[in-house]
Description:
Blueprint: E1 7-11, E2 17-23, E3 31-35, H1 38-54, H2 60-65, H3 68-78, H4 87-101, H5 111-122, E4 125-127, E5 130-131, H6 134-153, H7 181-192, H8 199-209, H9 213-217, E6 224-225, E7 230-233, E8 242-245, H10 248-254, H11 279-288, H12 297-309, H13 314-321, H14 326-329, H15 333-351
Antiparallel strand pairs: 1-2, 2-3, 4-5, 6-7, 7-8
Amino acid sequence: MNIPPGIDRLPLKDGTYHYRVRIRISGHKPISKSFKNLTHAKQWKRITEGQIEKGLYVSVSKADQHTVSQAIVRYRKEILPSKTKDGHNVARHLDRWEKELGHLKLSRLNPSTIAEVRDRMLSENIYPEKLRSNSTVSRYLASFSHVLSTATREWQWLHENPCLKVRKPKAPPGRIRYLSREELARLAEACKKSQNPDLYLIFLIALTTGARKSEILWLKGCDVDLENRLFLLSDTKNSESRTLPISEQVFELIKNRPMTRDGFLFPSPENSDQPVCIRTAWEFAVKRANLKEFRFHDIRHTTASYLTMNGSSTREVAEILGHKSLQTTKRYSHLANAHKRKVIDRLEELLYES
């Protein structure tokens, strides 16, 4: 029997044998483990030595010593505070994962367990007769995956992130919902009448710039250049700075607005260190305007759609919206063609008038 160095064949009382693997590598704590089968002992020895040499080995005892809940708690304390923009949503996602899986040791966490929670979330109604969307569940998975990746790479509590082996729900095709001129007028009027005094100006900035809600709410005084009539966006979703022109109407509303260089342009009334929350006011305005299936992000689609129909090129729209890929912006190209057809139809009517 060929027993390699580092493996001992030891007799048991019942007359059988077990195989003890001992791994000693300079600069690493000695490791030992016993197996009933020599083949399994050889495999474990080979894999473990390779992981140690590559700096990938994590002691099983660490995964046994920590629970999912402990990983989430540490992540909340050390990592989450740096997520200034989406921290609230990530925290909400992690609350769900902790409730579902917090009791498990990290060593017991596997892709199958995570997938069961994923499927449960996909089958739940968030509103009467409306299931939680695939995109939302994907965001839940992404939040949890970052916790496990951090526990793997930085804390070495895990050997690998099991979330990476879980299939994300298929994303729906890009959604384009934009407002007609009549709908725009109704929504603008509803925002003007809102009890939130900031809502109309926020809506107007979104409409005239195509900026994301987070980009607007996190604007500070130093990001507003009134002299050159520009918004300076330095902390965007794509991590690239861009400037956006301030329209005449927005300028008139903003020029006399009190602001400090380091303070938010739209501070929360309860805590000036945080931007205002417009969720309730926005939902009420949409309801008052009698709009169906319209999200704040759809203002951005509205801006892009009207720019396209007005003859702006794909590259121009991409620059304004801050798209990294022109492929994203090309979703609106059919609107340009549809608008051109209408122009041709009007020309034809003119030419053949009797």
